[in-house]
Amino acid sequence: MRAAELRRYLSESIIPAMQINLKNTSRLLAGLTLVLLLLAAGRGMAMWAHQPLVALANNFDQVRYTACLDIYPYRPGVAPDRNSYETPLEYFSAQSVPDQACYWTSELLFIAPVALLARSKSTTGDTAVVSVRWAGALHLVVWLLSGAAFSWLWWRAEQSELACANAAFLALIAMDPGNTIYLNTFYAEASALMFLYSTVCLTLLMAQQPRRGLAIWLTISAFLLGMSKFQHLLLPLLLAMLTWAVAAIKHQPWRRAVLALGIGGAIALCLQLVNSQRDNSLNSNINLVNRTDAVLSAVLPASADPALTAQRLGLAADCANFRGKSIYQLHADPEKVCPGISAVGPSRVLGLLSSEPGTLARMFADAPCSMLPWIPDYLGLVGDTKLAPLPAEFFSFDRLLKAPWMPYILLLLPLLAVVPLTLVARRGDSPVVLLFAVMCGATAWSCLLIAILGDGLVEIAKHSHLAFTAGFAFVLCVPLVWLLRQLRGARA
């Protein structure tokens, strides 16, 4: 059947047969939205309450945040900041650890109540031990309340299809174990995803109904997104610029949304720059680790002549002998193995664009394959068990990402949709759909780019965690909204 005949068959036969009267459709969408919100709550609570604890391990990445409030894993006889990559840790206590570096993050909003609870127990004479599940409960409650609030706001704005799509995202993507393994942790990934979600939703709502109250919440959300992780310090400003660009192309009055994103992002950027100058010993160590991994795991393996590339980066040709390794596989001081590597930052790597564009092209083109699996398999996921995988009773879209071409589909679809959506005449919701596609695509690719330049291919699945979620959001929500509107007989 030809494409034209298929479209005519769908429009004249299938779609009319599926149409229901408006009143019944509204009830159907309301019921479906409620069911999806309940499904989201059920999936989230199943992960939160599972015995033993199911969460992503690795205390080392969390301790730089919990140190700000003097709360550490409760492991008598074990150093509080010692790594724990084999199994997640459930119990924490208030402890005083001298000379421990602290890194600001919006995740502190969820760490603070747990720290206060631990301190209150210590003052009453009880064992000052609390479960990380308290943080998980806070994460989950904020997720569910936010999701319900956004669906209600879209429903009130007579955008019932968007309300339903939002609930579907919450149930199927946000509560996927690829995301919920961060619920019962102090990882900043939990806050990054949560505040990215609220920032995108608020931007889309403001594009449809620019209210002052929404602008205030969007400013706060953009600020918290920029403060979630250092690698996201520019993301709110990027979203602001793209919102302005779409508004200019589609002639939309989105000035308030752009200003809210810009103000929140600018404040976060300033604080993150101050943050990067604090605790120089911590920042120096992080820079050394990140730059070593970027050069050895990503840049040199992508080069046709690794020795020459090393020299162009200002390193000795012998550094090429260590390509493909991470800093943890060197078993030596990186500066002794490859002198000068701590000075090779992202700007110097991007400088290869003039001399070795092929190296950078291969590095970025091969990176999506390295994002698999979505749920890291080198870190434990089950408490009291070493390097245990996700329990079989939890379904995750991670199981569908086995083929190496799947990441490319997820990451490219939002970008491929930008051109036709840009060319569509200004009608209906095409500007908002274009904005959503741009935000999803930009988030996915900017997170991947920053992850590669910041830490190479080492732990890239975790560092580019938002990328897959952004891709899934576009692939799920746009077709779903279209289908629901066809069921109503609407014309987008």
UniProtKB/TrEMBL annotation:
The chain crosses the membrane at residues 134-155, 186-205, 212-227, 405-425, 432-453, 465-484. The keyword Membrane applies. This is Glycosyltransferase RgtA/B/C/D-like domain-containing protein. It comes from Pseudolysobacter antarcticus. The keyword Transmembrane applies. Keywords: Membrane, Transmembrane, Transmembrane helix. The lineage of its organism: Bacteria, Pseudomonadati, Pseudomonadota, Gammaproteobacteria, Lysobacterales.
